Structure formats: structure tokens, C-alpha cells
Amino acid sequence: MKTIIISSIILLFVNIYPQVREIESRSYFKQGDFEVNFSTNLGVGFQSVERSNSTDYNPYYYQNEGRPFIFLISAAIGVCIIDGLTVEPEFDINMITDAEISTSILANVIYNFNIPRKEIYPFLKLGFGFSNYRSDYYYYSNGDNSLDTGVLNLGAGLKIVYSSGMALKLEINYKRYSYSNTYNDYYYDQYSYEINALVEALSLSIGYSILF
Known about the structure:
The chain has 212 residues and is mainly beta. It has a single domain, classed as Beta Barrel (Porin). It has one helix at residues 2-24, and strands spanning 34-53, 60-66, 69-82, 85-94, 102-112, 120-131, 149-163, 166-185, 191-211.
């Protein structure tokens, strides 16, 4: 009788344990999974621009600060290289009110955390890239639209799966645009000027993800 009871307990444990493991394992963001993201960012930027020359004749220095409104449309494709860890190229269209429309190309690394038995995935994002964003100093680039503005991209948020393969994506995002260049102004004189610009943008991102 004791042998029968022990055998039954072992069989019950063997049957239940794989089911518990299956419930607790992540449903998405597993190695080999893909993700397509679309989102809109709304926020504010903190801008600082310095322009100067170092000549003895007619020295020049100008500093400007501003608070540009931030409006971005983003698209990204990610691939999960190990469980939870996604590599994601991102393309942004920067529709910032004090500048011409510009673009950014970023490379992100994202870790998606797993909450057992919940279809909620908190995530952290780190990325770097380049943009042709100029803000109110773009007219000093001599019409050059090169992607020579460096971008640091940080984010934290949630992906909430609401149906099979679809998720709502909420994110607090920080982007740091930094630009430095020397340009020549031959229209009035023959001086070289230096420009250093920094825009720190904080925004709320709302979008959706297609998971497969």
C-alpha cells in the first residue's frame, strides 16, 4: 500500500511540474522571436546652443537656450537573440516645431522582463545612433543634411499583450542630441565659426507591437 501511495505522488509531481514550468516560462520575447514596433512620442526638449569664433578681430560669442516641443513618429524591427534580450534598429521622423523635419537612425538593445503568469513585460532600452536634426541652428549647416548629430537613446516602459501577437507599448523616453561643427561664413567676412549644440528630449511614447 505504501508503495502505491509513493508511486502515485511521484507520478502526480511529474505531471504537474512541467505544467508549472510552462505557465511560469515567458510566452514572448524568447530566442528567435521577432517584433515590429510603431509609436508616437510627445514631449519637450531642453536646448543649449553655443556659437563662437576665436579671431582677435571682431570676436563673436552667442549662447541660446530653448524649450522645443517634441513630436516623433518611430518604427522599429527587433529580433530576440537570447530570451528577453532584443536587438532593434529604429527609424525616427522628427517633427519638432522649431526645426525642419529630420530623421534619426538608431541601434537599440532592449531587455524585456518576464512576470510569471502575466502578459505584461517591463523593459529597459539603451541605444545609440545619428540624426540630421539641427533645431534652430540648422541654417548653419550650409544646407548639409548629413547624419552628423549624435543621439543617445534611453527608455523604460511596459509592453502589455492584449491579444495573440499584439501588445500595447508605453514608454518614458530620453534622447540626447549632440552636434559640434566648424563652419565658414564668407558672405559677410572670412571667419570660421564653431557651434556646439545639445538638445535633451524627454517624452512619453505610446504605440503598439506586433509579436511573432
